[in-house]
Each structure stands twice: as C-alpha cells, then as structure tokens.
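input
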Amino acid sequence: MSESEKRDLTPVVPRRFRSVFFMLVSCFALWGLLNNMTDNLVPAFETIFGIKPSESAGVQISFYGAYAVLAIFAAMMVEEFSYKTGVLCGLGFYILGALIYIPACIAQNFDLYLLGIFILAGGLSILETSCNPFVLSLGPEKTAVRRLNFAQAFNPVGSLAGIFLAKYAILANLEGNDKAVQLFWVCVPYVGLISVAAVIWFFFVRYKDTERESVQYEVPEQDDSMKSGVSKPALICMYLLCIAVPVGILVAINMLSENPGIWGSMVCQLLFVMIGPFVFTLLIKNYRSMLCALLKLPRYWMGVVAQFFYVGVQIAAWTWLNKYCCKQLGVSSDVAATYYLISLILFICCRWIATYYMKKFNPAGMMSIFAVVAIACCAGTMYLPSDVLFSIGGLPFSANVICLILISGGMSLMFPTIYGIALGGLSSHTVKLGAAGLIMAILGGAIITPWMGSIIESTESVWFALVPGADSVWDAELKTSDLAVRASFIVPAICFAVVLVYSLIFRKPTVSSK
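output
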C-alpha cells in the first residue's frame, strides 16, 4: 500500500474522540446560531421599546464589545489552563447570560437585556477561542486541518438555524402583541438553548481530558511559551481587577453626574473599559514583550485595523439590512428577514467557492477583487431604484435590494483571509497573542454598527449630500427616510475601501518565522 493510500485511510476523527468531537461541533453550531439570531434583536427591540436605531444598536455594542473585552482573557484561559476549562467557562457564561433574559423580560428592562447579552457573548468569545485548538488536538496532526474545516462547516448550519429562529419565533410575534408577549418570544429561543448548552457542559464536566492522552497520534503538545509564571488564581484576579477598575470609574461618573455627556455613550464606555485588557497585557512580562514584537510588524497591526473595519461592515450591513428592505420594499420585519437568509446563503456559497479557488490564486488578490465588487454593490444600494423588477414566491426584488444582497457575497472570504495574512510570518511564540488581537478587532461590530445607525435615524447628515435625488420624507413608523437609509451605505463602502487598501499593500505571501 502506498503512502498516499495510507494517508487516505487515516480517519479524520479517530473513533475514541468522536463523542467529544460531536460535542465540540455542537458548540460551533451554537455560536453560529446565536451570532446571527442576535442581529435580528436590533429591529425587534426597536419595535418593542420604541427606541431609536442608534439606541437599539446597543445590542451589537454589548455583543461584540464582550468579544473584544474578553479576547485576551479567553486566550489566557486556553494557555494557562486547558481547552476543556475554556469550553466549560464559555458555556457557563452563556447559560448565565441567557438566564438574565428572564428577569429582563419580567421587568421589561432594555438595559438588563444588554447585560445578559454582554455576559452571553463573553461566553461565546471564550468558547470560540477554546474549541478551534481543541478540535485540532483530537487526532493526528496530518488530518488536523481537515478536522477543523469539517467542524467549521457546522457553523453556517447554526447561522441558518439562528435566522429561522429569529424570523419565526421573534420577528413573527412582534405584530399585534403587547410588550410582555413580544419580550416573552424574545426569551424563548435563548432560554430554550440553555438545555442544549447544559447537556454539553455536563458532558465536559465528566469528560476525561485527552490533551495528554492523544500523544499516540503524534499531536504536538500545547506550546507553553506564553505561560506567565504567575499563579492561576492571581492571574484571573489581575484580569478581573483590570476590568473592574474602569467599570467602577464609569459607574461613579454616571452616578455622580446629572449629565454624564460623552461618558453616557455606550461606545465611549466600551472603549474606556478596553483599557483594562491592555493594562493586563502590559503588566505580564511575557505578554508585554510579545505585544511589543507584534506592534513592530505593519502586516499584523494593519491587519487588526482591517479586521476591525471588516467585522464592522459585516455586522452593520446585516443589522440594518432588515430596516433597508422594510423601507425600500414596504415589507414587514419578518418578511425582511428572508432577505437576510438569502444574503447568508450567498455568503456561505461564495466562501466555499473562494476557498476552492485559493488553491490557484493569491488570496490577497482575490480579496481585493471581492472588495471592489462590494464597493460597487454599496454604490448600487445607494443609487439604484427600488422599483420591483420581479418576485419569487411573492417576495419582491428591486435593483438596489439585489445589490444589498450581493454585498454579502463580496465580504464572504474577508475574515479568514485577513486573519491568515496578518498572522503570516509570526513565530509560534507570538501567534497566540496575535490571534487574540484579531479577535479583539471584533470590536468593529460595536463601533461601526451604531455609526451607521446614527445616519439611518438622522434628519440631517453631511452624508446626505451623496444621494441628492433620494426622498427625504420621514417615515414615523420606521424612524428613518429613504434618503437616510441610502446614505448610510457610505459606511460599508468606507470599510471595504480599508480592506481593499490592506489587500493591495500586503498582497505578497510571507514565510513563517520560527
């Protein structure tokens, strides 16, 4: 038997690890589901609480802000403890955050929902950081990449499930119901998924950690180069203290000041809290030296900037897609969720196609082409008419809405491509902290989304000059105008331009340094 035939016979997931692999795959589907279901909470809360688009964007600020605040903590959990500990911690945070939805529903309190969303998303951040390397460890190194790709294939399955849950459990129950009933249906999918998370959590509690047992497959041991030398309880206390201090300062400012001004803004508060993780990194010698090394590499830190704008445009475009379709086509929120579903399917298909062709073409070159296409689609979303061209199953399509959907295809390959380019050439000593920095760039979803929302809800904006022919008549129900929703898509165009510049500057691949 030839060597290639032996390689083909090697199982992607060895039999003894299949049960834990199945549970990890469930985690991949879980965070995909929750990510995409949360996007639909923005229009839902706007309707339920009667708030402005920029205020309802607090959902995304809390969700993606948690990713940013806890990214370094998640990396520390995996490095200083174990993959299993990271999974247990992540699932525990999710369960706690989802349980907070119950008192939030009873009290009908939007701020309490935001707290639950923040804790829930913090759990997903830790879970996402833990599961990827855990999957790699479950078998021989030569099948590790195939194993991880197989596991990640279930992420979009969860995403599609999240859209269906949002469409039929949340958005479909907004019309004709009072606030209590509407908030009950917001809680149902999140609280219901606690049972799924609890089953996975109890499995890992009883699961005997195989990180050390899998050496028979010649899996490389976990790199200890980031070990801090500080005791584990002290390390956790240091991180929590670094977060608690800025949070305490903000609470004091808001309590003592009748008009907190800029400190009352959720975005400014989040940016202030972000000081904590950076201080923690500077306090630990090994982390500090790696941070300094990373900041000397333009390919890396510019990649973090590009990732910030990419994640920002993905979250913002999908968050406000619902409102755009409602305004341009006159459909309801639950019908508009169907366009979101179509966009996500296109996103997934384009990612698969792009991944295949990366064997033949330079990924950075492909990303630059996709960025140009996405910018052109943003222009179509801003300027093309909303006259219905055709309908499929009663679902109307116009030229500008088609461009809106095509934006998702343009951004399909960007996250993993930026990730790969930015980490290219990094030594194994710095790559983990580098990866945490790229996860922190998810903060873009918390910053770009309310920026775009502030244009959508505006009656006067400097960006309105870009679409002089659009109708400025105010829609009291949707709290926007045709002019505002069209002008807001200058924000995605700017974000794609940043990605385009990055892909052109760093289009040449690097050789990894050791």
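quick obs: The first strand starts at residue 388 and ends at 392.
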